[in-house]
Amino acid sequence: MRIMSLAAIVAKWNERSSIATGDYEAGVRNPRTSWQAATLAAVDNWATAIREAITRGAFRAGVNDTTDQEWLDAVLTKGLTRWPEGIAASLDKYRAGFEPYWNALQAQTLPPRMPRGHSENYNRSRLVGVMLNKLRLSRRST
After folding, report:
1. Exposure class string for 71-101: b at 16+ Cβ within 10 A, else e
2. CA–CA distance, 126 with 93 (Å, rounded to integer)
3. Residue in 135, 110, 103 with CA at minimum distance from that of residue 125
């Protein structure tokens, strides 16, 4: 089979995809199907695919496809530059997500602190952990 050279295909992909921001935005703003509805409809397929991926060791294989240096290079050239913008864009969602835990921590009454190394101090930590886990589980949607 005769096809374009690999270099030509990569160059074309780069050229076309780099100017497709408008197409990408239009697709996101006007999807054919609701993202949530389509994702929920795919739950059984996702579970099947995950089980199959576990069976064939796909996670390990995927990790082995990238070296530590490749990971580091990607983080430093892409992740690092996108980090501040991502953090700024997520502040409201972060606040809304953490607020119930903050409120619960503020309302928590702990037994008095004992001398350093006393076993009751571990109980204080346990009480906080149990309370936070219970809150986390109660906030999960089904």
Report:
1. eeeeeeeeeeeeeeeeeeeeeeeeeeeeeee
2. 28
3. 110
* The pTM of the whole model exceeds 0.90: no
Q: Which amino acid is at 2?
A: R
The residue assigned the tokens 């389509």 is 38
Alpha-carbon separation of residue 142 from 38, 85, 137 (angstroms): 16, 31, 11
pLDDT tens, residue by residue, 22-71: 999 999 999 999 999 999 999 999 999 999 999 999 999 999 999 999 99
Alpha helices, DSSP H, located in 65-115:
68-74, 80-89, 91-107
pLDDT tens digits along 68-117: 999 999 999 999 999 999 999 999 999 999 999 999 999 999 999 999 99
Task: Please name the amino acid found at residue 49.
Answer: A
Judge whether 93 and 124 are in contact, CB under 8 Å: no
Q: How remote is the C-alpha of 23 from its chain's centroid?
A: 25
Q: Residue 4 carries which side chain, given as an amino acid letter?
A: M
